[in-house]
């Protein structure tokens, strides 16, 4: 009897203490994408209201950026932005953002403690603080994104999160050459990168079908190169091709570019511009035909594929032109990387071109592959002299890699593995896993896409670290990127439909430790966050992730 009483008292005491601490939370209350690497769930919640104070322990710009993002977000809901104060002591009712070396995490990591009495967010620098703020954002009700009734209290469920990315490079690519998208949509793409703790936007700016960036020294690039007279209807297949008869084009002015680069920088996203060479260059050659082997005339391409006319590797003017273009590009993009394409460059014009053949002879090159390698190495020298690093698609391995080049492995993973074994940095973006232009469900009833089949689950299943590499070689794998080619992405809405939610899966691949990655768990979190995406207003694909469930049910019936 006595024992029984003691037991009862103990239960009552426990219940009372848990009431005091607040409600018990469940895993569902922490539906964060990408999944945090260490999450301890605690009872209760921190309440944010008009009295909440935001403290920062440093006035440096990057800390302010993270704090300003938090303020903007809370301001939406509270009706007015709380003041930022300087201070290093976490106080009751406050959110303290603190940079300190006293966190045992990598440079982009963060430590978040949410208690009913206060929030403490620690990181080594502004990036970690910013990612901690994105975690807080995902713990808050989706309505904070837009149009929330003001003057409300907000609850952040209590927890301790110690989190850091698996890879230093976490990116998404967007092709604006085939079809382009308004600045507002590019910004929203960058918003989605930031929300999912991704740090790189690879902006594919030039193509056979359109040159999309203003270059002052060469105005014809945009006057002529930015417009095609019409566009192929459907896939084309074999001739005769059918065209829509409508002129298509446009470009991003220097002001647009600056706006986008700044917008990205405020969200800790680096923009990597891609200027394609020596292939995929018809739009530039239409504007300046003297830069091809034949001298033209050339037309901006009106259908998709790979074209024989490329920059002439024999003429000096080609290099003068490209270096002038790159100089203007370098001025606009402060990041260390410049992508120079390098993919899908047919060699037939070079084989017939006396100037290219002379170059091969003069430089003692074995063949046209080595000529391509000469081309890329020469451009790399220029970039390095300007304090930049070159990235190219994996074809730049052919004929010998430029000494400091970083390789994007797209034709499967072999190129990436070979480059890492040679001691070169690598970004994994293999076809088909990371090709978000592929169909994401059965093509029937879907808008036209390039082909392929890369559903969310398959994208999610990709592990960028090749088993073929030993520990030493593995450190060359910088990370992962999803590619979004726009041949068939005729509208911004359709671009988003193809991007999301597979984009979010790429974010989780780049951030979360392999052992914690689980597709069903990801889907549960995605379903929970779907309301946030709805409020933000992105057009994401909604079929397949429900269908997988439905399919599983019918299969077991
Ligand atoms: C290959 S990936 C390309 C692009 C196409 C894409 C379509 C790469 C370096 N080149 O030019 O748009 O396939 O999926």
What does the model show?
With 557 residues, the protein is α/β, with parallel strands linked by helices. Helices cover 37% and strands 17% of the residues. The protein has helices spanning 2-21, 61-78, 126-139, 183-195, 220-223, 254-265, 282-287, 316-332, 348-352, 354-363, 368-385, 414-421, 456-460, 471-474, 492-499, 502-511, 519-536, 543-556; strands at 39-48, 53-56, 84-86, 94-99, 110-114, 119-123, 154-163, 169-175, 200-204, 206-207, 210-211, 227-228, 248-249, 270-277, 337-341, 389-393, 406-409, 426-428, 477-482. The strands form four sheets. The chain has an eight-stranded parallel barrel, surrounded by five helices. Strands 1-7-5-6-4-2-3 form a seven-stranded mixed sheet, with helices on one face. Strand 8 (169-175), helix 4 (183-195) and strand 9 (200-204) form a beta-alpha-beta unit. Helix 2 (61-78) packs parallel to helix 3 (126-139), helix 4 runs parallel beside helix 6 and helix 8 crosses helix 11. The longest helix is centred in the N-terminal third of the chain and has 20 residues, at 2-21. The structure holds ligand TNX. Ligand TNX binds next to loops.
Q: Which characteristics define this entry?
A:
binds ligand TNX; seven-stranded mixed sheet; alpha/beta; disordered C terminus; 557 residues; eight-stranded parallel barrel
